[in-house]
Amino acid sequence: MTRLVLLGPPGAGKGTQAARVAERLGVPAISTGDIFRANVAEGTDLGKLAQRYMDSGEYVPDEVTNEMVADRLTQPDAVGGFLLDGYPRTEAQVRELDDMLAGAGTALTRVVELTADPEEVVARLLNRAQEQGRADDTEDVIRRRLEVYAEQTAPLVSLYSERGLLVRVDGMGDVVEVTQRLLAALDAD
Ligand code: AMP
């Protein structure tokens, strides 16, 4: 059974790699950012709430995010495993995820930190801004997202490391090579 979390700063390539690795492992890639963006696009109440935070590079409040993930993880395709991309991002979310999984009699199998060079990350995000026009890819918001990651999410690396769950993979370089590194680190190559 594969129940993975993918951690890493904005611009490390998590979304791209999550989709590729999940496909190889036969589990759904669950991206909280994608779910929020879909809600924004559809104009749901959740989307309206989330957008205010996303546009300024802040995290959507834990209660809202936790409820959304709890709902997603009970859907049939996630019962046999999953790859979480972009969740948990705070210590409160870690605890909540622990409870959700314990409630289902399961637990995480591995946490992967995708590492990236900070300069490269900003360059990648600015490039994505031009290509995809994401509202939160302006330079100011990118800097804020990196700060929020450092403050709130980077501490999760040592938390999961202390639990013996963490593997660290270099996210720099060619997309195909990074996927190979990830699969090798997960003993799935
Ligand atoms: P991402 O696509 O993962 O970079 O997420 C885009 C934005 O969605 C983030 O900057 C946050 O505003 C919001 N978001 C995504 N995941 C979470 C989360 N786990 N907790 C809080 N906010 C989140």
TrEMBL record:
Pathway where it operates: Purine metabolism; AMP biosynthesis via salvage pathway; AMP from ADP: step 1/1
Domain of life (superkingdom): Bacteria
Protein name in the entry: Adenylate kinase
Binding site for AMP: 32, 37, 58-60, 86-89, 93, 134, 145
Catalytic activity: AMP + ATP = 2 ADP
Keywords for this protein: ATP-binding, Cytoplasm, Kinase, Nucleotide biosynthesis, Nucleotide-binding, Transferase
EC number(s) stated in the UniProt entry for this protein: 2.7.4.3
HAMAP family registered for this protein in UniProt: Adenylate_kinase_Adk (MF_00235)
GO molecular function: AMP kinase activity
UniProt-annotated stretches for the region NMP: 31-60
Function: Catalyzes the reversible transfer of the terminal phosphate group between ATP and AMP. Plays an important role in cellular energy homeostasis and in adenine nucleotide metabolism.
Protein family (similarity comment): Belongs to the adenylate kinase family.
Keyword Transferase assigned: yes
Database matches in InterPro entries: Adenylat/UMP-CMP_kin (IPR000850), Adenylat_kinase_CS (IPR033690), P-loop_NTPase (IPR027417)
Organism: Occultella glacieicola
Enzyme class per UniProt: transferase
Subunit structure comment from the entry: Monomer.
Ligand binding (ATP): 11-16, 128, 173
Free-text comment on this protein's domains from its UniProt entry: Consists of three domains, a large central CORE domain and two small peripheral domains, NMPbind and LID, which undergo movements during catalysis. The LID domain closes over the site of phosphoryl transfer upon ATP binding. Assembling and dissambling the active center during each catalytic cycle provides an effective means to prevent ATP hydrolysis.
NCBIfam families per the UniProt record, alphabetical: PRK00279.1-3, PRK14527.1, PRK14531.1, PRK14532.1
Localization per record: Cytoplasm
